[in-house]
Amino acid sequence: MERSNYKLNNSGVIFIYIYFLAGVLWHLLDFSHTIVLYLTPYTLFIASILVIYFGNKKIEIKLISWLFGTFIFTMLIEILGVKSGSIFGNYSYGSILGLKYCDVPIVIGINWTIVIYGLYTISDKIISQSIILKSFLVGVMAVLFDLILEPVAVKLNYWNWQSVTIPVQNYLSWFLISAGVSFIGAKVKLNTDNTLVIHYLFAQYLFFFLLLVFI
After folding, report:
1. CA distances from 74 to 67, 68, 193, 211 (A)
2. Could you tell me if residue 14 is left (phi over 0), alpha (psi between -120 and 50 degrees) or otherwise beta?
3. Can you give the pTM of this predicted structure?
């Protein structure tokens, strides 16, 4: 089914930036801080679904398969990571991110998926031919995203590290996971017409960067 409502897509872009900028303010104000933390997993889940649904003109089976496969894969990696400490390092999730499976919040797999999809969409518009370079670029951008995310996530008690400094293996794992999943996306030639997911990703970058500066 085709979805080509230009006005709806434009409204969605405006709403995404307003929502995330408002989210920064809600996190900084004492009276709303606790409430917005409680709502975090639900808003991330709903926003991700809407971005996929309204951002794609056509929902293809290969896109659904890739998204579902990425979700399952990243959840399994996270579960193994939490249990063993051998992938990202020794860390544990707090209670902020909601419902968990094997000590990993479900929303973590969802956000992994939407972040990688957004990064892949960006890289595909920059590099049209080489799958290797495209995947490499996704890995680099994923690490840059995590560099901003990590200190904020720890302050908000999304998760906590046993060590004082975040292990280098965490960033290496981010690179390898994101690049590897993107490589599969490139192989199946995922549709990258979804500009809404790019704005959603940029809004997340901006959100975490502003919180990094102000909290």
Report:
1. 11, 10, 24, 25
2. alpha
3. 0.91
**pLDDT by residue, tens only, the chain of 215 residues:** 444 544 456 777 888 899 889 989 989 888 888 888 888 899 889 989 889 988 887 788 999 999 999 999 999 999 999 999 999 999 999 999 999 999 999 999 999 999 999 999 999 999 988 999 999 999 999 999 999 999 999 999 999 999 889 999 999 999 999 999 999 999 999 988 898 999 999 999 999 999 999 98
Q: Is 114 buried (19+), middle (13-18) or exposed (0-12) by CB count in 10 A?
A: buried
Distance CA 30, CA 25 (A): 10
Tokens describing residue 10? 């434009």
Question: Beta-carbon neighbour count of residue 128 at 10 Å?
Answer: 8
Cβ-based burial of 78 (10 A; exposed 0-12, middle 13-18, buried ≥19): buried
Place of tokens 């995310």: 149
